[in-house]
Amino acid sequence: MGVPVDLIPVLLQGLAEGQYHLLCGAGVSIGARGGDGGELQVAAKVAKEILDRTSTIVDPAEEGNLAIVYEEAKVQDRTKLNEYLRKRFMQCSPTWQAKLFDIRWHRIWTLNIDDVLERVFDGENNKAKFRKISPVSWRDKFSPPEKSASEVQVIHLHGLAERVGGDGEDLIFGLVEYSNVVRTVPPWHAAFETAYVQDPFIICGARLAEEPDFAIATRTKNQSRIATGFPSVIVLKEVSPALKIRLERFGLIPVEATGDAFFSALLEDIGEYKNSLEKIAVKNGVFERFSIQFRKLDPRADLIDLGTDFYGGDEPTWLDIVSGKDVIFKVTGNVIRDIEKQRGSYVYILHGTLATGKTAACLRIAKDIVQYGYTSYFFRNEESIDVDACLGFLSAAPKTALIFDDAADHSAGIGKLATRCAEAGIQCVIIAAERPRRLRALKIDVPDKYRREYLYSRLDDSDLWGLIAHRRKVARLGSLVRKSDRQVFDFFRDACHRELFESLSQAEYSKGFKARISDYIDAELRDAATKNVSTVVACVHRFGHLLPIATAMRAAGAHFDRFKALLEEALGSDGIIVRERKGLRLRHRVISEELWKFQTVGQKYDAMLLVCQHLAPAINPKTIKAKLLPHRIVREILDVEEVVNSLQLQAFEFYAELEPIYGWSSRFWDQRAILESKAGNFQKAYSYSQKAVSLERHAFAYNTLGYICLVQANHIAESNSQESKEIYTEGVAALDDARMAAERNDLSFEHPYVTFFSNTLRYAQHFGRDDVSFSLVESHWDRWIKAAHDASCFKTHYGQQRIRELMASWLKIKLARGKDSSTK
User: Fold this and answer.
1) Strands 375-379 and 451-456, how do they pair?
2) Which DSSP symbol is given to 5?
3) Residue 547: helix, strand or coil by DSSP?
4) Which of 56, 150, 557, 646 has CA atoms 20 to 30 A from the CA of 689?
5) What is the pLDDT of residue 572?
6) What is the per-residue pLDDT for 821?
7) Is the pLDDT of residue 823 over 50?
């Protein structure tokens, strides 16, 4: 029907895996009947129907212009207009549209206000791919689909007829309404922009010529083929030669067909494709839910070259490893051998500082365990782990390895998955990489018996010799090529201290990596558009996250044309920015961290503010629970330590400026309270913390209140002992509330314990030997130590060691008190 033959297999693969979005224009509703019994029509005919059903008058030349006719009808005959819209576009009778629900879509977006899609679902009842359909208006809060319900969201980007005449009226037909949306970019429109630019779409019945609210997104060019490997297709009943040229310029494959004919043929092809696959017997929807979260690492697949230089120190890609560009270090070989011998459920944790080879090791392990019958899947890190889908998939395909880079954000899900697999007798191989400062979460959440740890640090002798041999073979020893292997070895060992990134940087450029990065940044950031976008990318990528495309578009500002060109440039470019499936990053996380250090406080302030403001509409309790990427990005940026490190004294102004859009968030007030506490402003800190508790009575809000009280109790212990004791008692009570709030949800967090023990150890040192109040502190200590022994967050070897260390510290305090009394 117009899809190139070589792209048909990847199109079918993407549809079978649930990777595609569906965008519906008026053409999708053609053939269905409205609630008044008449066949639904395209925009120009709807405009004429409005004129026939109302007393609206417009110039003859404007009679087919829906935007103008609708706008005039709202003013001239609002009552009859509303009556027409509700009768015409509610209680519709679908025809062929039932076929749409035989494909599992990532989301369905529609420019139509009718309820044709909803009525399809009602009529069919319990469709094969979905158990729940959720109609959403663009005015509604952004929310993720409910995984457990196999929900499909139908987002009405121009409103719903059923809301006409009510308080939530939300139609976008008139010029003013289009203008308002373009100016404000509501959450669902922002989400559509982001998805459209980077994800694969099937567009049916929409010419993308009459939607000014989406002009920027559609003209930016759909990048799905580059980002994901899956092409985007637009289906129209008629495609003229001129329209074909325009649509191809938009990054779309035009198909000339009716929606009915196209989806009939497509479903037949998808069925044949699925029959050709190796059978994995899973329940309905499990394969698609799993595939949405994990990317298969197939050594035989056609891989996209991102234009990065692995030998030059860029972050590794799957293509780099499949091409054999890496060196298998000793510790990586140990992991591979351990997996070969594994029977049961284990999490292999690769930990080490930045640029020690963890990501390359994850990918190398994935490639090499193929020989043992494993198929590896890389976690996309876009939302929280769907544990049920993973269990369903692993039960049918036990020879599966799941790989998580920057794993700490999902430590609870990883621990839960490993435990449930073990309890169900399902083999589970999880490979997780993380930095030392975030390793604690994995130590707490993954039980000892399922956890294996591997340290990536300085290279040993065999690693260095292997690195030298490989680099010499591919002529990538740079200025060291004229030296003997022994001389290079000594240089890497002594001058580079056996550090991987430093060794490679010296080999390529004969200078340390910081000096290299400084030169690189100076050379690349002369262009204003690139500099603006790169700073915002670095703001996010320094935490390991990709900057969403829509946010990058906002960062480009007046330089939008340059940004558009940047996206469309060949990926073989040596530029500082790299394009990936879900956004932008710099060529290596080290570059992002160093670039960020080079920015002024003002530049950092602007970048952090832009990201937080742009992502704010996508953050609410539902998206926080689902751990969607916007939430995780903003959580990192708003962390008080990060804010202070980046903005120094402007931290106070930064939080104040964000209050109007984040004032609903308990965690926002938590971080603001901690900032005031660190500045010695107890009254403000206490007030902000109480605000956090009032918004959400969860463990972290209570923990912050306890922390602020205990810090203040220590601060005034010598100057006002009575008030100090009262504040200490209130703080302990808040920490008790934190512990109980977690337990009510069957959770166990170490935070209230850490807050209590660390501050009480300090507080106990303020009491004299004869101060009877010490007995109260001691009773609290004994109670909390007992609770820690019983808490699941301290059940691991790491947790038990912490308890022993705390008890030793407490014993020292008691012994010191006895010694003080004997010398008096």
Assistant:
1) unpaired
2) G
3) strand
4) 646
5) 42
6) 44
7) no
Q: What is the mean pLDDT of residues 45-58?
A: 93
What pLDDT is attached to residue 745? 81
Note the CATH number of domain 294-458. Answer: 3.40.50.300
Domain range summary for the chain, segments of one domain joined by +: 5-33+96-272, 41-91, 294-458, 697-824
> Which H helix or E strand runs over 743?
helix 721-744
HSE value, Cβ hemisphere, 13 Å, CA-based, for 161: 23
Give 419's contacts (C-beta < 8 A, 6+ positions apart).
Answer: 345, 447, 450
Q: Which phi and psi (to 5°) does residue 152 adopt?
A: -115, 130
How far, in Å, are 322, 385, 452, 483 from residue 327 at the CA level? 12, 31, 22, 20
Q: Note the pLDDT tens digit of each residue in 344-355.
A: 899 999 999 888
Q: Determine the Cα–Cα distance for residues 778 and 810; give it in Å rounded to an integer.
A: 9
Is the four-CA dihedral 317, 320, 323, 326 of positive or negative sign?
A: negative
Quick check: do 5-33+96-272 and 294-458 share a fold? yes
- Token couple for 824: 């008096």
Mean pLDDT of the chain: 87
pTM of the prediction? Answer: 0.82
How many Cα atoms within 13 Å fall on the side-chain side of residue 384?
20
21 is written with which tokens?
């979005």
Average the pLDDT over 165-185 and give the result: 77
Contact 306, 580 (CB under 8 A): yes
Q: Which residue has the higher pLDDT, 610 or 193?
A: 610
Q: Does CATH place domain 5-33+96-272 in 3.90.330.10?
A: no
Sole residue written with tokens 């987002």: 155
pLDDT, position 281: 62
Give yes or no for residue 53 having a pLDDT over 50: yes
In 3D space, the residue among 604, 628, 605 whose CA is nearest the CA of residue 616 turns out to be: 628
Is the pLDDT assigned to residue 129 strictly greater than 70?
A: no
Q: Is the pLDDT of residue 365 over 60?
A: yes
Look up tokens 């609206």; give the residue: 56
Say how many C-beta atoms besides its own lie within 10 A of residue 238's C-beta.
9
Give the chain's radius of gyration (CA, Å).
Answer: 30
Using pLDDT thresholds of 50, 70 and 90, give the confidence band for residue 42. Answer: confident
Place of tokens 């700073």: 535
Q: Which residues contact 217 (CB under 8 A, 6 or more apart)?
A: 192, 193, 196, 197
The Cα–Cα gap between 519 and 585 comes to 19
DSSP secondary structure, 285-319, as one string: THHHHHHHHEEEE-TTS--------TTTTPPP-HH
What is the distance between the alpha carbons of residues 572 and 554, in angstroms, rounded to a whole number?
25
Q: Are the C-beta atoms of 97 and 88 separated by less than 8 Å?
A: no
Q: Where are the beta strands (DSSP E) in 332-399?
A: 345-352, 375-379
Is the Cβ–Cβ distance between 351 and 434 less than 8 Å?
yes
Which amino acid makes up residue 52? D
Question: On the CB side of 820, how many CA atoms lie within 13 Å of its CA?
Answer: 13
Residue 233 near residue 252, CB atoms below 8 Å: yes
Query: Who contacts 124 (Cβ-Cβ below 8 Å, separation ≥6)?
Result: 98, 101
